[in-house]
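Table S2 (continued). Query chain:
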Amino acid sequence: MRVLVTFAVDAEFAPWRKLRHFASVDYDGLQLWRTKIGGADITALLTGIGAPASAQALGLMMNMADEQKYFDVCISSGLAGALCPTLAVGDIVAPQSLIAESRYADSPKDELRVDAELRKLAMEAGAVSTNCLFTADRVFVKASEKIACSSRAQSVDMESFEIVKQASAWGARNVVLRAISDSAEEDLPIDFGLALSNNHQVSLSKVLLQVLKNPIALPALVRFGRQSRHAAQRLAKFLDGYLQMIAYANYGERSREAAAR
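Corresponding output:
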């Protein structure tokens, strides 16, 4: 069984890399790490932040794979922001469906659903059941922006819709597992959308430039950093246990049997 687990940035993946040995693989500029859990071959991929970066990374992965090497399961993972007040920092959410900004209007469906069986397994492992995750095309900096979208979804990220759409095209089973890094009531300390590098990662120099322009944001930035590390650490432990459950149940073999029918 082959499983792909995606993260936007290294900070989301780093705690899991500390828990388990991963071998680094370079493929055409993609940052890949590989390990085995039971009978499952696990590949972790850093896509970069945002849907365009995710689409590009997933496209390269598709080019790399041949018929025998497509992924059986794809997990869109990493951090997400809360849109509803019932979600707390560190919660692992397993949304049932995904919606995206209007630029996906050319898609046959403006809503995607994850694999029900994989999601059910995540909830059995302790994930919080949510109805919907909203994939935005920008960072929600203000709590007011989150509140404005709270009637549509319970959490927000910038990658999952594109990842699930692309991986579904391969025939992979998909699930979204995200750890909450910021609550619905809090503003972000800076606009991380203005702090991205050319490779769609967070640029430290651009973060520092924003702090220099607004030094009062520093304490909130430090607090947000602690929250994000806590959420990423919880996610790492959850993913490791969840993937052991998937490997034991041999979901990849069941996926291939279903496709053959």
